[in-house]
């Protein structure tokens, strides 16, 4: 693989398994609304397009479709209130992430975190898990006018670091990351785990798929 001059990394489903916290908040929200819980397995197939989309999916119990707008307007603030107190309580780094980030830093790669999660939840999660200081730039879902799969966050990061898109690499877990990277002219590596609505990420045809961040040492090297 072409050695990049900058690496951008997605957060949820790539660095961090945040579904346990999200599922807790979904079920607590539904309980307040007098509805049955959905459970972690279902929530795991719904995440990846922002919290608003997750709340809408939770209300109807499926990936596609829309709830009654009045139901959403009632549910969304409840979810945000719950998540503000539970963004970091059950989330954890995936195995190999810490080792992989340490390698990337030691190899001198400028690193950015590009996520669709709102900034009010991104910063506490990164700090709680000891990731905040790993990144020279963090772009959250509400930092810019558009978010992934739009290429704007990736191009913004490339400009920040002074790197041409063809010298940049995105690491993510979903088709959103693949689409954003392709539109921006980046290379794209995806994790085999993470959140892609139950679909095999290989179907999106990234440049490479890894099972662990420790594989980055062999994939892109140091020289």
TrEMBL record:
Keywords assigned: Carbohydrate metabolism, Hydrolase, Magnesium, Metal-binding
Domain of life: Bacteria
Pathway field: Organic acid metabolism; glycolate biosynthesis; glycolate from 2-phosphoglycolate: step 1/1
Active site (UniProt): 10
EC number: 3.1.3.18
Catalytic activity: 2-phosphoglycolate + H2O = glycolate + phosphate
Binding site for Mg(2+): 10, 12, 173
GO molecular function: metal ion binding; phosphoglycolate phosphatase activity
One Gene Ontology biological process: DNA repair
GO cellular component: cytosol
Pfam families, alphabetized: Hydrolase (PF00702)
Co-factor requirement: Mg(2+)
NCBIfam families per the UniProt record, alphabetical: HAD-SF-IA-v1 (TIGR01549), HAD-SF-IA-v3 (TIGR01509), PGP_bact (TIGR01449), PRK13222.1-2 (NF009695)
Known function: Specifically catalyzes the dephosphorylation of 2-phosphoglycolate. Is involved in the dissimilation of the intracellular 2-phosphoglycolate formed during the DNA repair of 3'-phosphoglycolate ends, a major class of DNA lesions induced by oxidative stress.
Similarity field: Belongs to the HAD-like hydrolase superfamily. CbbY/CbbZ/Gph/YieH family.
Name of this chain's protein: Phosphoglycolate phosphatase
Organism for this UniProt entry: Thiobaca trueperi
């Amino acid at each position: 693989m072409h050695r990049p001059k900058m690496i951008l990394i997605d957060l949820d489903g790539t660095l961090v398994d945040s579904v346990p916290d999200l599922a807790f908040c979904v079920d607590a929200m539904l309980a307040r609304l007098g509805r049955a819980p959905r459970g972690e397995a279902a929530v795991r197939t719904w995440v990846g397009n922002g919290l608003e989309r997750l709340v809408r999916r939770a209300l109807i119990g499926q990936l596609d479709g829309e709830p009654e707008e009045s139901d959403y307007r009632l549910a969304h603030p409840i979810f945000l209130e719950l998540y503000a107190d539970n963004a970091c309580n059950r989330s954890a780094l995936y195995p190999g992430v810490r080792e992989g980030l340490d390698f990337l830093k030691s190899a001198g790669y400028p690193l950015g975190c590009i996520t669709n999660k709102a900034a009010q939840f991104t910063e506490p999660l990164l700090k709680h898990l000891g990731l905040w200081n790993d990144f020279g730039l963090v772009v959250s879902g509400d930092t810019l006018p558009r978010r992934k799969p739009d290429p704007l966050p990736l191009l913004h990061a490339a400009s920040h670091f002074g790197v041409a898109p063809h010298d940049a690499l995105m690491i993510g877990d979903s088709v959103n990351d693949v689409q954003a990277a392709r539109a921006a002219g980046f290379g794209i590596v995806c994790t085999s785990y993470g959140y892609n609505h139950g679909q095999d990420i290989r179907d999106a045809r990234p440049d490479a798929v890894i099972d662990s961040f420790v594989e980055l040492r062999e994939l892109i090297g140091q020289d």
